[in-house]
Amino acid sequence: MFVYHGDLDEGLADFNDRSVDYVILTNTIQVLHRPDFLIMEAARVGKQCIISIPNFGYWRVRFQLMFRGTMPRTSRLPYDWYDSPNIHLTTIADFRRFCREHSLKIISETNLVIGENICKPVGIAPNILADYGIFLLEQG
Predict the structure, then answer these.
(1) Which residues lie closer than 8 Å to 7 by C-beta, 6 or more apart?
(2) Domain contains 36
(3) What are the tens digits of pLDDT across the range 57-87?
(4) How far apart are CA 70 and CA 45, in angstroms?
């Protein structure tokens, strides 16, 4: 096992195609300038990829934006708009569509609600009811 530490906005050019079993991107893609580029690089380098995302379609996020008119803050997204590392916001539905459009096969998907002292799987309507998504992917 090894860990790569580098500028992920530059991609994974140092790695050959399918040279590692898994590429794991946890809370990563929303802070990159070109998340699409890195996702495709991860799919090229890894036999499979595990990608986790905060779901900006979560009902609490939608509620705050709609009724308060302010950028959302939750336990998973505790930042003000001006100090957030998140520059590309996505939802579970957006991520699924990206995978379809880029021939990435979702092998499995786990959607969760994560809070203080709680971590529950979400089975129905995850784009609204889950605040976090974890995807196992491979090139399709």
Answers:
(1) none
(2) yes
(3) 999 999 999 999 998 888 777 888 899 898 9
(4) 39
